[in-house]
Design a protein that fits this description.
216 residues, mainly alpha, two-stranded antiparallel sheet, 5% strand
């Protein structure tokens, strides 16, 4: 049996479709979804998927709980709030189409976008997987983030309409924190999703009122 292509020490017992070679059990676990964009057809990925999802749910937030306080919440910044709206828009749209869309699916979608931002093009992706996003909603979130520009009626000299990569990740982590806060341990429910739907309903109402005031 050939040696693991990664560590070159242990036996390569698992055939990796993305690498086209064999990995040992340990390296497979270490590289999976970190350095390798694993195809959904991979039996090793499917076997460990529930475990990986649970790790995401139990992951400690990067921000402390104090980030939700009015004084420190980054979403009080107009630029970050604008980005947050674009991040949550795909969640809102999908939740309206699918009543069973849960906080867990929202969390996994946000984590997908965060990982993609962090890794960029560093993941090893098989040709057949390039046109097939692993997470449709997560991919929509990622694309929204990449397209998002801070729009103001007046852009002052020196202001930047684009977002830095660090800002995008920070905003994603803040929203992920919000999912865990509102889910209150019940990730199969829609506590967070309901909050998103209410926020967008308020935005729509405010937009409608503004148009009425403007045209009167």
């Amino acid at each position: 049996m050939a040696k693991c292509i990664k560590c070159e020490k242990r036996k390569g017992k698992r055939h990796c479709v993305a690498l086209g070679d064999y990995l040992c059990n340990l390296c497979c676990g270490l590289l999976r979804e970190k350095e390798i964009h694993c195809p959904q057809s991979c039996t090793f990925l499917e076997k460990h998927k529930p475990y990986q999802e649970q790790r995401i749910i139990e992951k400690k937030p990067e921000s402390s709980p104090r980030a939700l306080s009015p004084e420190e919440d980054i979403l009080n910044d107009e630029r970050m709030a604008w980005l947050a709206v674009h991040i949550e828009a795909p969640l809102k749209e999908y939740a309206e189409k699918k009543e069973a869309f849960s906080d867990k699916e929202a969390l996994l979608s946000l984590e997908y976008a965060r990982k993609k931002l962090e890794k960029g093009e560093g993941l090893i992706i098989t040709p057949e997987e390039k046109s097939k996003p692993k997470n449709e909603i997560g991919e929509a979130i990622f694309q929204n983030i990449e397209r998002c520009r801070y729009e103001r009626k007046i852009i002052l000299p020196g202001e930047v309409a684009t977002y830095k990569r660090e800002e995008k990740i920070k905003c994603l982590e803040r929203i992920i924190f919000g999912v865990k806060f509102w889910a209150k341990g019940d990730f199969e429910g829609r506590n967070y999703i309901e909050q998103v739907l209410k926020r967008f309903a308020r935005i729509k109402d405010l937009s409608r009122q503004k148009k009425i005031i403007t045209t009167s």
